[in-house]
Amino acid sequence: MKQIYFDNGSTSFPKAPGVGEAVYDFIGRGAFNINRGNYSGAYEVADIVLSAREGLAALFHVRDPQRVIFTPGVTYSLNYLIKGLLKPGDHVIVTSMEHNAVMRPLTQLCEQGIITYDVVGGDAEGVVRAVDFKQKIRSNTRAVIVLHASNVCGTIVPIAEIGEICRAAGLYYAVDTAQTAGMLDIDMEGCRIDFLAFTGHKGLLGPQGIGGFIISERLDRALDPLITGGTGSKSDSLSMPDILPDKYESGTLNLPGIIGLHTALAYLETVDREALLKEKMKLTAYFLGAVKALPGVRVIGKQGLEDRVAVVSVDFTDHDNAVVAFELEQRYGIMTRVGLHCAPMAHRTLRTFPRGTVRFSFGAANTTMEIDTCITGLKVMV
To answer: Which of the listed CATH numbers 3.10.290.10, 3.90.1150.10, 3.90.1150.30, 3.90.1720.10 matches domain 4-15+272-381?
Structure first.
């Protein structure tokens, strides 16, 4: 039975050509550390890491590649921000569509009595209005944190408009690009973003375990490094260096991951990313048209293609969603994700809590034939 992968919102598959080979070659040929070894192999790896920073800076329209900081991913990056920036009495504004990568660290600080936060609600389609942020701003508001697109229903948040409001109010502005990096064009400086969190293993087509953030100059002056330790620089001092990227990159970097991501970024430079996005959205439109015609099916969120990415959540109202997802995989080899998708607030907003949904998320490598197989199976099941 052929395996059909419809879970690209979790991680992309297949990865960019050459990613696996690049990681294997690094480990097998010479897994040297950078900033530690004073020999040619280490310098070669350092050049690749710098090239990866430069590729990410170009992708997000950032002038200084040293502002690209590597972490294990978006969750770590957001923790670095939330726990390195916020101080007792601070107030934060988020949306009701946020992932737990934002909400759990914020709730932890809130339960400890350190900070408070307010939520800008979305509507039944997951749409968030920029103007609603103005009403939530207080005298002690320090930051606004939003995701760029919902990992539950794919709805896009108007990050440019929110960024203008934040800059006018003097607030730090952070954006989680987990579902959009590599797919949508994101101008960090144009959108007034101070902290852009990215992951390498979704739209960027790299391996898991590598991601990071890009930080503005003004936020860098206010942010304390959450993790401190050896950097290979200024080793005569017991204090952390204040130079970038060292200030936020203690310990040994995930060099295999960075090299895999570097290969993926090089691939993305050779293809028409706009064409790849159009292909994903073409598949999304094809799936939406077919699945909405089935009985007992409720598509969650936007019903069309406007202001969304290729993520679709479906509630099979006459069946247990978990059973539907299980049967799709067991009988037809179709891989989806079922449940609350680490985003309970989003599901409450979309009126799907606690039942959850079956999520279908498409990549450019998927085909209409695969969607036909899925729809045929669902016709039998529902």
So the answer is: 3.90.1150.10
- Per residue in 84-131, pLDDT (tens digit) is 999 999 999 999 999 999 999 999 999 999 999 999 999 999 999 999
Taking CB atoms within 8 Å and a gap of at least 24, the contacts of 47-56 are: 48/258, 48/259, 48/262, 49/253, 49/255, 49/258, 49/262, 51/262, 52/258, 52/259, 52/261, 52/262, 52/265, 53/245, 55/262, 55/265, 55/266, 55/269, 56/198, 56/212, 56/214, 56/265
Please tell me the CATH code under which domain 19-270 is placed.
3.40.640.10
Phi and psi at residue 119, in whole multiples of 5°? -120, 125
* Lookup result for tokens 């890009």: 214
pTM: 0.96
Domain boundaries, the chain: 4-15+272-381, 19-270
For residue range 148-186, what is the model confidence (pLDDT) as tens digits?
A: 999 999 999 999 999 999 999 999 999 999 999 999 999
